[in-house]
Design a protein that fits this description.
Blueprint (H helix, E strand, L loop, with lengths): L16 H30 L4 H30 L7 H24 L1
Length: 112
Amino acid sequence: MKPKHLSGGSHGAVGLQPERTTLAWGRTMMALVTVSAIFLRWLPHHGLPILALFAIAVAAAAAIYLTQRSRYSTSSQGIFQERVNAEVGAVMWTAFAGIMLGVLGIAFVLVK
């Protein structure tokens, strides 16, 4: 029988993987918000098409923010059940957004 402090989905220990993962996703989200602000600074020089980059960065940051609680809960529950699955979909979509931002950013700079 599991101790009472481990019941209900809490993994029962401070500093385990869900907290570190949450902090990493938070840093990624803040980086995307920062990059979106930089894209807004490019607006006068590159014109309205740069808003596509802004939209991708903001959408990726919003997606991370909106799924953070669920991701933490799933990780905590996985530790409690001693079975944690990787968040492959979230990582792949974030990587895709990063690649798109890089490719489009380079294209905008080279075209102008």
